[in-house]
Design a protein that fits this description.
Length: 80
């Protein structure tokens, strides 16, 4: 769980540093996809994989490309 939180917050900070105006966290894949609109990037992971229909995974990369104005994130790994 701690790794998930660190990864998610690192990605959020990188998105803001790259110029995104806002980061929105979503509870489910469906909630994230429902936010699709021009200028929004849908990013996240479920069980360490990028869900179908998402623009990006959830890597905390220092050179995150800005391809939109708003970042919608979904990150969750189910306990095993």
């Amino acid at each position: 769980m701690v790794i998930d939180v660190l990864r998610a917050t690192s990605t959020m900070v990188q998105a803001l540093a790259a110029g995104y105006e806002r980061v929105r966290c979503c509870e489910s894949v469906e909630d994230a996809l429902a936010l699709r609109a021009p200028g929004r990037v849908i990013a996240g992971e479920q069980d360490w994989k990028t869900p179908p229909g998402f623009d990006l995974g959830n890597p905390p990369e220092p050179s995150l490309p800005q391809t939109g104005r708003r970042w919608c994130s979904r990150r969750r790994t189910e306990p095993r």
